[in-house]
């Protein structure tokens, strides 16, 4: 996916009501972030990044304070980058060697059954 899918205003409002205007981020020790978010000081973030197939739905949304969003964003970007590299690797064809193998099909020489090396014709 190349186009960013943002959450609708109604989804953001429902998510804010659901979480009670509290950050839904996780601290390193596994506890929930205690920050109470205020208007304009939060992000509605994708649990599964939209570039990895996450949809802009209530279930895939989470309200994060700016600090938790700052921690999560680099992790998301790393996952997205890895997915792109894997996708490119899946479709990449190994380029031809610039140096043909001796007596190989692209070589100007060929080896006869009796061991002689002769020039290829045509």
Set down the secondary structure blueprint.
Blueprint: H1 9-19, E1 42-46, E2 61-65, H2 66-91, E3 109-111, E4 117-119
Antiparallel strand pairs: 1-2, 3-4
The largest sheet, given as strand count, sense and whether it forms a barrel, is: 2 strands, antiparallel
The counted number of beta strands is: 4
Separate helix tally = 2
One letter per element, helices H and strands E, the order comes to HEEHEE
State the distance separating the first and last CA atoms.
48 Å
What is the share of helical residues? Answer: 25-40%
The value of Rg in angstroms is: 28 Å
- Spatial sequence of strands, sheet with the most strands: 1-2
Stretches with pLDDT under 50, minimum 5 residues: none
Number of domains: 1
How much of the sequence lies in strands comes to 5-15%
- Average residue-wise pLDDT: 88
Outline, from the CA principal axes? Answer: rod-shaped
Helix/sheet category: alpha+beta
Protein name: HNH endonuclease
Region (Disordered): 89-109
Keywords: Endonuclease, Hydrolase, Nuclease
GO molecular function: endonuclease activity; nucleic acid binding; zinc ion binding
């Amino acid at each position: 996916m190349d186009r960013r899918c943002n959450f609708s205003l109604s989804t953001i409002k429902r998510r804010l009501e659901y979480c009670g205007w509290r950050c839904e981020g996780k601290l390193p020790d596994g506890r929930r972030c205690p920050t109470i978010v205020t208007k304009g000081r939060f992000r509605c973030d994708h649990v599964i990044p939209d570039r990895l197939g996450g949809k802009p739905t209530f279930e895939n949304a989470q309200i994060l304070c700016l600090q938790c969003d700052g921690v999560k964003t680099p992790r998301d970007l790393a996952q997205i980058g890895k997915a792109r590299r894997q996708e490119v690797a899946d479709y990449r064809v190994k380029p031809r060697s610039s140096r043909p193998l001796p007596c190989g099909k692209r070589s100007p020489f060929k080896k006869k059954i009796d061991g002689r090396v002769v020039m290829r014709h045509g």
